[in-house]
Amino acid sequence: MVLLFVLLGMGAVVILSEPPTGSLQGQIQLPTQGEWPDTQVIAAGSVVRGVVVGPDGHYHLRGLPTGKYSIRVQAPGYETATIQPSAQVREGQSLNLDPVELRRLPPALSMYGTSQVFTTQETPQVNIRTSGLARLDLQLDPLNLQDYLGTSDLRDLADPYGYRLPETQPPLSAPVRKWTQALPAPSEDGWIAMTLPIPGELPPGSYRLMATGTGLDQTPLTSSYWFTVTDLGWF
């Protein structure tokens, strides 16, 4: 497509044209049959473009300016793989890339934070690091820390970062909130690190956030974190 601009009063004509383009395509394979994760193929060169892999594993990146591109594929729960470190896209041609099979990451899940005390004007948040999971199911429960004051159980309840030890599970009343958290695209090493704000207004009190995820190999994982909401200081 050619665009023609006439600059009146200057007698100049400027012609702008789109750069020559080509495309590339290929196929991604899973190690076992199952539901496709949210898989993206990304081409990085003079521009960065991405496309979602279809349900049959095929992808087609169109309209790439000619030149060399590094092609990688990333999906939650799988290692990020380089399909082609230096793919040459040529004008009017579609480059066929070799099939690539994704490799599963070992499932892992941890939660931690830099604070265990928040005011009622703050939004509590927790840091999550995970791999090998497609989603997280979260549950927020009330936690009565008064029951543990003056006992050795309080020391065992959490390490300095607020991680709830699985062997100390006090009885809890009805959950405050339950929700499913979608995970963002993994980094180049396949891991996902995110800061999760806890939605909704929370009245003063102590809470436990429990995260549950299932690995692609059906391995269940849990991690938890406790915190306090108060305007009066600790507890």
Would you kindly provide a brief summary of this structure?
This protein is mainly β and 235 residues long.
Task: Describe the protein in words.
The chain is an all-beta fold and 235 residues long. The chain has two domains: 20-101, Immunoglobulin-like (Sandwich); 108-229, Immunoglobulin-like (Sandwich), CATH 2.60.40. The protein is 3% helix and 49% strand. It contains one helix and 18 strands. The protein has one helix spanning 152-157; strands at 2-7, 12-17, 21-29, 40-44, 48-52, 58-65, 67-74, 81-89, 94-96, 100-101, 108-112, 117-118, 125-131, 135-142, 177-182, 192-197, 205-214, 220-229. The strands form five sheets. It has a five-stranded mixed beta sheet, with no helix packed on it. Strands 3, 6, 9 and 10 form a four-stranded mixed beta sheet that branches. A hairpin with a 6-residue loop joins β7 and β8 (81-89). The longest helix is centred in the middle third of the chain and has 6 residues, at 152-157. It is elongated and about 75 Å long.
Strand/helix succession: EEEEEEEEEEEEEEHEEEE
Q: Which shape, going by the Cα principal axes?
A: elongated
CATH class of the largest domain: Mainly Beta
- Poorly predicted runs are 1-15
User: What does the average pLDDT come to?
Assistant: 82
Total domain units: 2
